[in-house]
């Protein structure tokens, strides 16, 4: 008792002073520091999450409308006087009628549709009514006629795309007030669209074409799709997988299991680590110089893109594979060697299968990184307007194609505001691909990874 | 063992890919991002209406496009370079040294450069002199050149609104900037008498004219017009420099300013009343004509009346049709290579 009083009244806090619940100034200071650190950590996490939510929110709110599309149903009379002047149904002559020749048919069809539905709107000419329909429609008609020449002279029902502004009206991008000022659409046209909708001739549906159609020019944003870009990205991923995985695994198995430890392997190791940090545009310059200028490979082709991305992904795969190989305990190798396996047998029968989940995870993450890469593609001519689908592989590897991130980049530069929506939609598609790949990597790791 | 086979086949693929330069059947185009939308429109229509594949159109800038054109002759070089400024002697020399001797110059029309601000803001009526006095590093005051102290447009010209000077102009890598410098800033320099003073001070070519103030009143935009639009959206006081076609696609967000009292439009640019415009070109490698299928057809289609004429889709998108289109059509049909630059 006296001891305790003596200690607690002493000037400096004693080692065994008072109750544990009484905090001395030092403890308080330490606790405060800890709380501060925790708060800072939490703040950092909250900040990061908020940024992510903001980013995703803006992309999704901008882009989700790209997945729906407004269509107009028109009954077009395939006028023989315009499409087949001689009346002999000669495919070659009919093919000479360009899409410019088909546009008037659609204008007439729109006029008739208005008459039938008893729609009359003041200040709306025939040309204005025809502008509701996408400029893609004449091409759609022409293709149909060339494939069904015997239907000339009949009236055929087509489901055509509505023009970008009309589409935007039903997505909230265009309003009556903005149409007043807009040079490309008038309030009268929006009224017509509303009346067509009431008559059941205009509808909004899921935009499958966004995934299947090729890119379109600036005058028809409603027709632009990701078809060529998805195919191009897929081709490049195939090339990267086929080249980078075996090369990367072979290199790391050799370095990890067979190579002698000397200055040469050390140098290689340092350089691989460095390569992983090289800006990706450098690989693009390399690709241009070696694959296009020296090897004479074609421009804008997935083969060159794939080769460049392979170079970029290799270090990632090598590093991941070596880490996976290192994680396999030496006892496994020793046991295999002990029962008489050769070095190669021990590696291929025991070490590699055990390291496989780690290797696959690294490969998938490397592929995901390559999928989102734009900079190296800039220099090898893949940042381009490509409308033609590449052939099936392997010929298609040499045909021009686009890529998903490139398509996003291209669309953000276009003047028509409808492309903003398309670009955000493309980002969503790209993100879905990336999330799927990363999820696959996690699943593989969870299911097959062994811990020792 | 299968692993060894896999690596062997991978190497084989790499080897094959390095040797097989597949024959090219589509046209390759590269160059100016200003010409890109027009080229894309034509390429799309070409692919729809002809039995040839749709040409591939790359952007990347006028200078880069011309350099690519001049890399040599052969299937892995491009066929056409789009350009928003005329080819330079250095390009022609580079071409010649790489064996590209015959180049066709095709002028497709004119592009207007407009000044626009937020639709809810004030409207402006500019003259080149206003722009010079607003943005130049040094302006004329009482007969001598002094540092530019103008803060608002009203300081520049009492008729203009009392709004802070803030201009988003294209960065120096853009072809548009050249036109802006020449047709607006330099014209303004001349009109305000600053050019005289520069010359009197020993600056023979009046290079000082093009020096812009660096205090934040003029901001270079190195991106595209979409970036300029986003900047104006964020800062309603800003005035941006746009291409006519971009403005025409965004008339619900932007209000255009007049220049010398003329409203920019396809008509006023065609008649030459609106001063700030420039010709757009593409350059064709003649050695590829007849080698790349459809190349001749594509160029002829591009300059045909139904595409590049006053009622064609290009004009609808904002290209000002060339009054001398007939001469261009004839030259294209005859495959006339361009003569020396004058």
Automatic annotation (TrEMBL), chain A:
- Keywords for the protein's UniProt record, in alphabetical order: Cell membrane, Membrane, Transmembrane, Transmembrane helix, Transport
Annotated membrane-spanning segments are 39-60, 234-255, 275-297, 303-325, 351-372, 423-444
Question: Would you kindly state one Gene Ontology biological process term found in this protein's UniProt entry?
Answer: phosphate ion transmembrane transport
InterPro entries annotated for this entry? DUF3333, MetI-like, MetI-like_sf, Phosphate_PstA
Q: Could you tell me which Pfam families the record lists for this protein?
A: BPD_transp_1, DUF3333
Residue ranges, compositional bias (Polar residues): 1-10
Residue span(s) of domain ABC transmembrane type-1: 230-441
One GO cellular component term:
plasma membrane
* Region Disordered, annotated ranges: 1-26
CDD domains documented for this protein: TM_PBP2 (cd06261)
The record's subcellular locations are: Cell inner membrane; Cell membrane
Its membrane topology, per UniProt? Answer: Multi-pass membrane protein
Q: Which GO terms describe its molecular function?
A: phosphate transmembrane transporter activity
Task: Provide the family line.
Answer: Belongs to the binding-protein-dependent transport system permease family. CysTW subfamily.
Name of this chain's protein: Phosphate transport system permease protein PstA
TrEMBL record, chain B:
What are the entry keywords?
Signal
Q: Which domain of life is it from?
A: Bacteria
Q: Where's the PBP domain?
A: 17-306
Keyword field contains Signal: yes
Query: One of this protein's Pfam families, by short name?
Result: PBP_like_2
Say if the entry is tagged with keyword Chaperone: no
Point out the signal peptide segment.
1-22
Give the protein's recorded name: Phosphate ABC transporter substrate-binding protein, PhoT family
Species whose genome carries this gene: Ruegeria marina
């Amino acid at each position: 008792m006296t001891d305790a009083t003596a200690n607690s009244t002493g000037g400096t806090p004693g080692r065994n002073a008072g109750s544990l619940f009484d905090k001395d100034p030092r403890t308080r200071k330490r606790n405060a520091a800890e709380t501060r650190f925790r708060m800072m950590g939490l703040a950092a996490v909250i900040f990061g999450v908020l940024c992510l939510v903001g980013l995703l929110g803006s992309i999704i709110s901008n882009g989700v409308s790209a997945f729906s599309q407004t269509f107009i149903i028109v009954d077009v009379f395939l006028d023989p006087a315009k499409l087949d002047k001689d009346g002999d149904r000669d495919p070659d002559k009919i093919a000479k009628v360009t899409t410019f020749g088909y546009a008037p048919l659609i204008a007439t069809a729109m006029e008739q549709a208005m008459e039938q539905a008893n729609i009359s709107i003041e200040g709306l000419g025939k040309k204005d009514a025809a502008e509701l329909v996408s400029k893609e429609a004449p091409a759609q008609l022409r293709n149909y006629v060339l494939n069904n020449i015997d239907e000339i002279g009949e009236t055929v029902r087509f489901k055509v795309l509505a023009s970008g502004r009309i589409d935007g009206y039903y997505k909230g991008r265009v309003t009556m007030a903005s149409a007043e000022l807009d040079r490309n659409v008038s309030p009268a046209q929006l009224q017509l669209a509303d009346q067509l909708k009431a008559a059941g001739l205009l509808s909004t549906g899921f935009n499958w074409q966004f995934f299947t159609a090729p890119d379109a020019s600036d005058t028809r944003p409603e027709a632009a799709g990701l078809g060529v870009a998805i195919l191009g990205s897929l081709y490049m991923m195939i090339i990267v997988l086929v080249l980078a995985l075996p090369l990367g695994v072979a290199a790391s198995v050799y370095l990890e299991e067979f190579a002698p430890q000397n200055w040469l392997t050390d140098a290689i190791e340092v350089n691989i680590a460095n390569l992983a940090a090289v800006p990706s545009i450098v690989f693009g310059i390399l690709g241009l110089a070696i694959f296009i200028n020296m090897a004479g490979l074609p421009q804008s082709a997935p083969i060159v893109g794939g080769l460049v991305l392979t170079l970029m992904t290799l270090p990632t795969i090598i590093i991941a594979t070596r880490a996976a190989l290192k994680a396999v305990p030496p006892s496994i190798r020793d046991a295999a060697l002990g029962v008489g396996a050769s070095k190669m047998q021990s590696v291929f029968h025991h070490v590699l299968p055990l390291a496989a989940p780690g290797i696959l995870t690294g490969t998938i993450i490397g592929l995901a990184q390559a999928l989102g890469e734009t900079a190296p593609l800039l220099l090898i001519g893949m940042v381009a307007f490509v409308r033609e689908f590449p052939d099936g592989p392997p010929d298609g590897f040499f045909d021009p194609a686009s890529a998903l991130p490139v398509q996003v980049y291209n669309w953000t530069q276009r003047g028509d505001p409808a492309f903003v929506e398309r670009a955000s939609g493309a980002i969503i598609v790209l993100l879905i691909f990336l999330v799927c790949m990363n999820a696959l990597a996690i699943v593989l790791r969870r299911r097959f990874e062994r811990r020792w | 063992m299968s692993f060894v086979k896999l690596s062997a086949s991978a190497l084989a693929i790499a080897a094959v890919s390095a040797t097989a330069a597949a024959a090219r059947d589509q046209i390759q185009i590269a160059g100016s991002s200003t010409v890109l939308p027009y080229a894309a429109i034509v390429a799309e229509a070409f692919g729809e209406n002809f039995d040839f594949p749709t040409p591939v159109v790359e952007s990347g800038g006028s200078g880069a496009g011309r350099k690519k054109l001049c890399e040599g002759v052969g299937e892995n070089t491009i066929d056409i370079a789009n350009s928003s400024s005329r080819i330079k002697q250095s390009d022609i020399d580079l071409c010649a040294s790489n064996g590209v001797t015959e180049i066709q110059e095709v002028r497709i029309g004119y592009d207007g450069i407009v000044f626009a601000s937020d639709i809810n803001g004030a409207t402006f009526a500019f003259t080149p002199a206003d722009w010079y006095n607003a943005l130049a590093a040094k302006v004329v005051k009482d007969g001598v050149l002094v540092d530019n102290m103008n803060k608002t447009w009203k300081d520049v010209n009492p008729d203009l609104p009392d709004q802070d000077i803030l201009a988003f102009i294209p960065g120096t890598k853009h072809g548009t900037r050249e036109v802006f410098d020449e047709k607006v800033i330099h014209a303004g320099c001349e009109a305000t008498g600053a050019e005289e003073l520069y010359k009197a001070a020993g600056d023979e070519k009046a290079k000082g004219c093009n020096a812009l103030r660096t205090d934040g009143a003029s901001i270079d935009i190195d991106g595209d017009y979409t970036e300029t639009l986003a900047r104006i959206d964020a800062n309603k006081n800003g005035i941006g420099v746009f291409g006519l076609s971009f403005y025409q696609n965004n008339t619900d967000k932007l209000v255009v300013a007049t220049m010398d009292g003329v409203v920019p439009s396809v008509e006023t640019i065609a008649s030459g009343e609106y001063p700030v415009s420039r010709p757009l070109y593409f350059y064709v490698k003649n050695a590829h004509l007849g080698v790349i299928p459809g190349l001749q057809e594509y160029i002829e289609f591009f300059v045909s009346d139904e595409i590049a004429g006053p009622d064609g889709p290009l004009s609808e998108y904002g290209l000002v049709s060339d009054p001398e289109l007939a001469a261009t059509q004839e030259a294209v049909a005859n495959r006339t290579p361009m003569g020396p630059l004058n």
